[in-house]
Hints:
Number of strands: 4
Mean pLDDT: 73
Strand content: 5-15%
Largest sheet: 2 strands, antiparallel
Order of helices and strands: HHHEEHHHHEEHHH
Amino acid sequence: MAATSSSLSAEKDRDGASPSAWVIGVLLVIAIAVVLLLLYALWKFWPTAATLKSGELSPVNFLGIHRLVTPDVRMFIIVAIAGALGGLMHSTRSFAWYVGHRGLKWHWVPYYILTLVIGAGLATIVYAVMRGGLFTNSTTTAVNPYGFVAIGAIVGLFTEQALEMLHRVASDFFAQAPAGADTIPKESNGSGAGTATVPDVEDAAAGTGAVADVEDAAAETGGGTDVETAVAEPGVA
């Protein structure tokens, strides 16, 4: 029994360990380098008015690599870059906040890294949905790159809200998914019983009125608690 308790305590300490000062410094340098690289890529792939109007292949020189790309490819690239940049801003802000409050944990580092991929992917999906569904004239010559890049950056900054928007779009176009094997019965309220799927963590937090912004939550409690372990929602850091 004592050995089991000791192993569980050791595992908890390992999972809840904080990175050392030099690791935090390395992560900070990497974050700054990635931001500069994304900004450089955005400037290099940015389409000019003449490029969009012509609709033809145009040269791009990125880190010594020369390529001819179409205006449509340029738009997809800059939107994805904007989404990754927005996701990186979200994760870097959270990273800096937790470092300042001495609450950074190792198990959150992968989340900070994956926000770049999530932001870029979601921004691309939202861009395709908006270009295909909201614009009758989908030619690139009529596209305003500033507007779509702004949307891509916002999607990267607020991935949960972007996913909810896509969920509502899918609900309007597709039938409701059938109940699976992991469904649980609804609580009886006198009007009959049914089934309901297990809610997501985000939906559970919204339904119970949980605080979504952990910075505000920590500020209200004095900032002395470990908000990473206290907040159940993994999508908000």
